[in-house]
Amino acid sequence: MRILIAGATSALGHATASALLEAGHHVIAVGSDADRLGLVDASEHFACDLADLDAVEALAEQVGELDGLVHLVGGWRGGGGLPGQTDEDWAWLEARVVGTLRNTTRAFAEAIGRSGAGVIAIISTTGLDRPTAGNANYVALKAAAETWLAAVGHALRATPVRTVVKRVKALVSDADRAAQPEKDFSGSTDVAELAAELAAEFQPSPAA
Length: 208
Prior knowledge:
Strand 5 (119-125), helix 5 and strand 6 form a beta-alpha-beta unit. It is built from seven helices and eight strands, in the order E-H-E-H-E-H-E-H-E-H-E-E-H-E-H. The protein has helices at 11-22, 34-37, 53-63, 87-113, 136-155, 174-179, 191-200; strands at residues 2-6, 26-31, 44-47, 68-71, 119-125, 162-168, 171-172, 189-190. Strands 3-2-1-4-5-6 form a six-stranded parallel sheet, sandwiched between helices. It has a two-stranded parallel ribbon with strand order 7-8. By secondary structure, the protein is α/β, with parallel strands linked by helices.
């Protein structure tokens, strides 16, 4: 399968690309930093500003047929209760969490819809179960991202495409553990574990 990873330069992006490649897929790694992107183990690499719809639509023309999209663009800003939920943080998060998802799904949905077993996957947060004032910007936009993905699923309801949401509290990598050996990462999901879950979404079902 031809699978595009949006936001491939994160620790989760690296792990997911490796897991998908190991499973035999053609992996298209996309990110805004060309230098970091080159370090991702993938079949193809494309530097693109995913917050720019024109750039993403041009990328879609280059990529062509596609079976899946794994949207990993994100980041976190927050704290300080409701007064700490600044307009600057909202704009930064909205562009990354929702804007890039809107752009990539609008640009790639048609191609994925033509796939025999398409999948569009995003990462969300368990914080949606219990929103906090200090996390208000972040969880509100994650909720918007989940709702947008549900709408994408509706648009593709006549196709075999599945939409997948993976909710996590926080992510941790071996590099994080090495950098902060004193920190308790209990409750965090290891990027390798989540990458394996994402790769499993692209495996044929037993009934297929």
